[in-house]
Design goal:
The protein is built from 5 helices and 18 strands. By secondary structure, it is α+β, with helices and mostly antiparallel strands. It has 2 domains: 60 residues; 210 residues, Gamma Fibrinogen, Chain A, domain 1 (Alpha-Beta Complex). The longest helix is centred in the N-terminal third of the chain and has 22 residues. This is Fibrinogen C-terminal domain-containing protein. It comes from Clytia hemisphaerica. InterPro entries: Fibrinogen-like_C (IPR036056), Fibrinogen_a/b/g_C_1 (IPR014716), Fibrinogen_a/b/g_C_dom (IPR002181), Fibrinogen_C-term_domain (IPR050373). Keywords: Signal.
């Protein structure tokens, strides 16, 4: 009887061990960085470092993070840690190459949260919105201190931006390509805490790039036509869209602008916070060359380009002002 009970306990412990192993997910956090904390175990590896290091971590129940370093002699060192990135600081590694992985147990609400734990690669990250929904977003980790959440990106004309109200509400395109994040998400993100705005664009044939930065960006809810709240000041770069703050959002099927006609529909300019239209037209028709029909292309007129010049790429980004962890 005792042997049978002991065997059952053994099976239960083994099952729990397997469950923990199978559900332990380590995320790549940083390149060429290492924790300041001491590892609880170090393994020297001559080949197949990823397989051997991850296997070692999975079979160590207390392993929460691991560091794989390539040494100058061509071998590898695998360091196992008993804490997550949330409780560690990272410094530069002196190895030839280093990749740090960790279980992520904290909630990431935006790109700043990812930046604060050491993420420095521009790309797609998953965040949790204030309503509990998980959302994949593009984070720019290089420009102006990093931590910027990209809500508009264009670079090849692969996505049509001449879309209706619901499409701009829900978002379209792909966050790893051309896209509009979605007005409902901009409302959720920017009403929780104060955000700033960064516009970035470049011309064809390496003809230069410009930026414009504002200290405030907040989008109101759908009942208020996703209005871009007023009160922002330009704090960097050239003039761009000061005239658009305080304006409602307009699309090809909802005319909420102050123009006597319709800013979006006749020129296929896409949705935007038009006043009596706008000097900046990042959602217009994409042209494969800089020459475009007047007022149709990706334009930054009056302050940079003429009305017949179109941009090669554009990026609109937001970042919370308080960047403390």
């Amino acid at each position: 009887m005792r042997k049978g009970r002991a065997y059952l306990y053994f099976l239960l412990a083994l099952t729990l061990h397997v469950i923990i192993i199978e559900t332990k997910t380590l995320n790549r956090i940083a390149y060429n960085k290492k924790p300041t904390s001491d590892p609880f175990k170090v393994i020297e590896v001559e080949e197949f470092p990823n397989q051997r290091c991850f296997s070692s971590c999975h079979y160590q129940l207390k392993c929460m993070s691991l560091l794989i370093e390539k040494l100058i002699d061509g071998t590898f060192r695998c360091s196992l840690y008993d804490r997550t990135i949330r409780y560690m600081s990272l410094i530069a590694s002196d190895a030839v190459e280093a990749v740090f992985h960790s279980i992520v147990v904290q909630v990431f609400n935006d790109c700043v949260d990812w930046y604060n734990v050491g993420a420095r690669t521009t790309g797609v990250y998953e965040i949790t919105l204030s309503n509990g929904e998980s959302k994949k977003v593009r984070c720019n980790m290089q420009i102006d201190g990093g931590g910027w959440l990209v809500f508009q990106h264009r670079f090849n004309g692969g996505v049509d931006f001449n879309n209706d109200w619901d499409e701009y509400k829900n978002g379209f395109g792909s966050v790893d390509g051309e896209h509009w994040l979605g007005n409902q998400y901009l409302n959720l993100i920017t009403t929780v805490t104060k955000h700033e705005l960064y516009l970035h664009a470049g011309r064809f044939n390496n003809g230069g790039r410009k930026y414009s930065k504002f200290d405030y960006f907040e989008i109101e809810n759908e009942n208020l036509k996703y209005r871009l709240k007023s009160g922002a000041n330009r704090v960097g770069g050239i003039e761009s869209m000061s005239e658009n703050f305080g304006m409602n959002f307009t699309t090809n099927d909802q005319d909420n602008d102050k123009f006597t006609g319709h800013c979006s529909l006749p020129f296929k300019r896409g949705g935007f916070w038009y006043n009596a239209c706008a000097s900046i037209l990042f959602n217009g028709v994409y042209y494969k060359t800089e020459v475009s029909d007047p007022y149709w292309g990706l334009n930054w007129r009056n302050h940079w380009l003429s009305s017949t010049q179109s941009l090669q790429w554009t990026e609109m980004m937001i970042r919370r002002v308080n960047r403390d962890p």
